[in-house]
Design goal:
The chain is an alpha/beta fold and about 375 residues long. Helices cover about 50% and strands about 10% of the residues. The protein has a domain of about 140 residues: P-loop containing nucleotide triphosphate hydrolases (Rossmann fold). The chain has an eight-stranded mixed beta sheet with strand order 3-2-4-1-5-6-7-8, with helices on both faces. The chain is elongated and about 165 Å long.
């Protein structure tokens, strides 16, 4: 019996061992699960119109190109404010005008002031473009004062002459430029004058004066007869951040002026300066042109200033031009350019008398900040020297 139990136990153990190895072997034989196959791209149907569906193409990861730094915009210039400009430019004024003052002071200091001496004084004034009538008046006034005062120390002579010149130039004119916006409407300045007088340059310099005083400015290149004028204006504007409205050469100047004012209103700039084309071909032509510019601008905004640019070196010829412009448009102020290049500063007196409007600005050089508000006292001091 014992042998039977032992035999059964051995058989059970053998069977169990066999089952264990069988199961293990079977597990090893199972292949690993396969990765799912990528779906096949649908085949284009043969014949008919092939519809090409966009496949999503996954680009291999590439390193993002480093963006090239855009060229740095030119740094905007910050022009100096208008205050004190004539003082800064006084040396230039003295250089050009001092000979006139010296001649007059020397003549007036003579021991005896006879008729010949007074004639010489008058001639000196006429030659300095003061004009015949104002020169005579200055001489008459001085003669009377010299008689009244009797003695003539150098200081007294200087004082007399200074008072007389100031009286002729006029201390009481309103020489301020109306450049303040009217609420949301910009102030509008039309700049007129014959080409070559420094008109475009004056527009650019004036923009700098205003920007120097903290204003925003838009320039209108309505001188469409010379493409270079618009280029010139653009150069001026880009230096100080003033936008320029320009159109192709030959465009109707009035339409450019209109566009400029429209843009100025949209952008709520403080002041719009319009450079006009002032061809003195015929008076009627000029009248039509400038009249139209002004009318068209006035459909949108009020014109605050019409500045006539006059070249101080052109003397009587310049005065004739001024007269024609004044007949065509309502000039409100004069910009007298190139005063640094002439000893004939007397044109200030002559042109104001001729047009009945004040000199508001003077150009004293080709530099960008060589335009100054006109100040009679500073001007006379420059003529007479210290
Ligand atoms: N010395 C001096 N030169 C000046 C002055 N103002 C302007 N100029 C020069 O005069 C020349 C003519 O100036 P522009 O501004 O081109 O004259 P413009 O009247 O606009 O002429 P267009 O553009 O043809 O209409 C330029 O060389 C200026 O630099 C000034 O006050 N003094």
């Amino acid at each position: 019996m014992e042998y039977v139990i032992l035999a059964i136990a051995i058989v059970v153990l053998a069977v169990a061992t066999g089952v264990f190895f069988l199961v293990r072997g079977a597990r090893r034989a199972v292949p690993p699960p396969r990765a799912p196959e990528a779906p096949k791209a649908p085949e284009a149907p043969r014949g008919g119109t092939a519809v090409i569906e966009e496949e999503e193409v996954v680009a291999p990861p590439t390193r993002a190109p480093t963006p090239e730094a855009p060229p740095a915009p030119p740094a905007l210039e910050i022009p100096p404010p208008s205050a004190g400009r004539l003082i800064r430019l006084r040396a230039r004024l003295s250089r050009s005008q001092n000979a006139l003052g010296k001649t007059l002071l020397t003549l007036l200091s003579r021991d005896t002031l006879d008729d010949d001496a007074w004639d010489e004084i008058e001639d000196t004034l006429v030659q300095a473009d003061v004009g015949v009538a104002p020169s005579r008046q200055i001489v008459d006034d001085l003669r009377t004062k010299v008689k009244v005062y009797g003695t003539r120390s150098p200081g007294e002579v200087r004082g007399l002459l200074k008072d007389e010149l100031l009286a002729q130039i006029g201390k009481d004119w309103d020489r301020s430029l109306r450049t303040e916006p009217h609420g949301a409407q910009p102030a509008i300045i039309l700049v007129v004058g014959v080409n070559g007088t420094g008109k475009t340059t004056t527009c650019g310099k004036l923009a700098r004066v205003l920007i120097g005083d903290g204003r925003t400015v838009l320039l209108g290149a309505a001188d469409t007869f010379r493409a270079a004028a618009a280029d010139q204006l653009e150069t001026w504007g880009s230096r100080v951040g003033a936008e320029v409205v320009r159109r192709e050469e030959g465009t109707d100047p009035a339409s450019v002026a209109f566009e400029a004012v429209k843009k100025g209103i949209e952008d709520t700039v403080d002041t719009v300066i319009v450079d006009t084309a002032g061809r003195l071909h015929t008076k009627t032509g000029l009248m039509d042109e400038l009249g139209k510019v002004k009318r068209v601008v006035e459909k949108q905004a009020q014109v605050d200033e019409v500045i006539l640019v006059l070249d101080a070196t052109t003397g009587q010829n310049g005065l004739r031009q001024a007269r024609v412009f004044a007949e065509v448009v309502n000039v409100t102020g004069i910009a007298l350019t190139k005063l640094d290049g002439t000893a004939k500063g007397g044109i200030v007196i002559a042109v104001q008398r001729e047009l009945g409007v004040p000199v508001k600005l003077v150009g004293l050089g080709e530099g960008p900040d060589d335009l100054a508000p006109f100040d009679p006292e500073g001007f006379v001091d420059a003529i007479l020297g210290d």
